[in-house]
Protein 1
Amino acid sequence: MLTGEFIVYILYLMNTAAIYIKTEPKMKAEAQKVARELGFSLSSLVKAWLRQLIKTKTVTFSTEDEIPNEYTRAILKQAEEDYKKGNTSPAFKTGEEAVAWLEKQGI
């Protein structure tokens, strides 16, 4: 006998697809921490980035806060010194010219 009470279950199935990426555990943990500090989940930030990629068809990375490591600073310093001494390659009009010059240098 029915008493007039009904239990209604509403199942909502999201139309979603999973994306799996490989990254270092430390990077994932740091990214999750930053996302939490900003008040987001890492998943929501990735979804926002994907939406932006689709909308603009561009990929933008900022290197404003990047500080070169010791090795890179040494290479840049050596390049500046070489440039000041005139120790540079000539300008090339074609890739073939560049390859020929490199081969002549023994590179």
Protein 2
Amino acid sequence: MPDPASGPSEQASQFAAIRDHARSAVIGLARGRGAEFTTRPMVPDSDLTVRDLEPLDGARAARDIELGARHAAREYIRTAREAGHSWDQIGHALEVIPNADADQVGLTVAQAAYTYAAGSPHTDTAVRYGRSFLWRCRSATRRSAIAACGTAARRRPDPGPGAARPGSSQSGCTPTEPPPSCSRPDART
């Protein structure tokens, strides 16, 4: 994101560079899929033309890049939570703005960051089951217990701002926490 301390012209340049990188990624993905290129007027009723992706191929590739970037952002947010960063710190790093959209009306920066990561609280699934953001328990004790049980790294729900940070004594994942009992008879020692 552009540096908010920079002036308007510098921010415009930074946004232009971000758009150029995104457009290059879209074109690269579409080209890799064998998308068609077409020549179209630069603006309506113009003799000037531009060579570009077929619009639907471009739109599909742009949407796929958007979804991929969102997935990558969530993984970085997960890693930040595992490293002990608060939702407020994550929100400031993401430069989320409370009240920026309907899902964030009246939220704090921390709550807006959680909504970005965990999704809207207004979906049918969230209304029925609640929302949570999963993170991996990384303590040495938990890792040894997981290895003993032969299971994948356990993910723990993060109910959002106001809840304990991963690694805190209230989070259920601390280096001094006793290992969970293993339900696999062949893995017990």
Protein 3
Amino acid sequence: MLKIYLLIIVLGLVGGSVYGGYYYYKDSQERIRILTENTAKLETAKKLQDDTIDAMIEDREKFEALNNELQTNLDKANVYKDVLINKLRKHNLAKLSLKKPGLVEKKINAGTKKLFRSLERISGAIVPTPTVPASAPTPAK
């Protein structure tokens, strides 16, 4: 009878060990599957993040170049502004317009026309071509 009890105890221990090994194997396989899925998700997220970072670096370089170009244009505009201010300080337009109103009117009208053409060109409007008035026929003598 003692042999039967020992056999039952040994079979119980062996069965428990086999069941424990089987449970450990199934649990390990489930963890490996979950970790593999998580790794795939993380790799996809990392690739997306790397692509985003590369795009942001390209944008930064492009914006830096555009900013430098804008700064250069601003510097040129400020120099031109200073030139114009010096010209206006040098010439007294009020006094000149009282002495020679026709000359000042022609200059201001020509400058205004030039400015409007420039604004039309910048804004993309179709700039009208200047028309040359037809000369009047000369009377026969």
